[in-house]
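Minutes, project huddle
Topic: does the predicted pose make sense with FE2/S2 (inorganic) cluster bound?
PN asked that the exact inputs be recorded in the minutes so nobody has to dig through chat later. Recorded below.
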Amino acid sequence: MYVCICKGITDKQVAQHVLNDGAGSIRELKQHLDISSQCGTCTKVIQKVINDTIIDEGLFKEVC
Ligand code: FES
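Predicted holo structure (tokens), as shared on screen:
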């Protein structure tokens, strides 16, 4: 699903950078993706994807 329409960035791309590069905030993610740089409408959705990815990863580590 597209989370940033202006730049054509998907939730999977965001999650990948959270998991692979350790990006835990919009500011850190901006070092890897050109997000939230035009209208800014995507900021809240992207933050939710970051949070959900971190929570999911935390649960995964506890199980294993
Ligand atoms: S939707 Fe992301 S900058 Fe506009």
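Observations noted during the meeting:
- The pocket of FE2/S2 (inorganic) cluster is lined by residues 4-7, 35-42 (CB under 6 Å).
- The longest strand covers residues 2-4.
No decisions taken; revisit at the next huddle.
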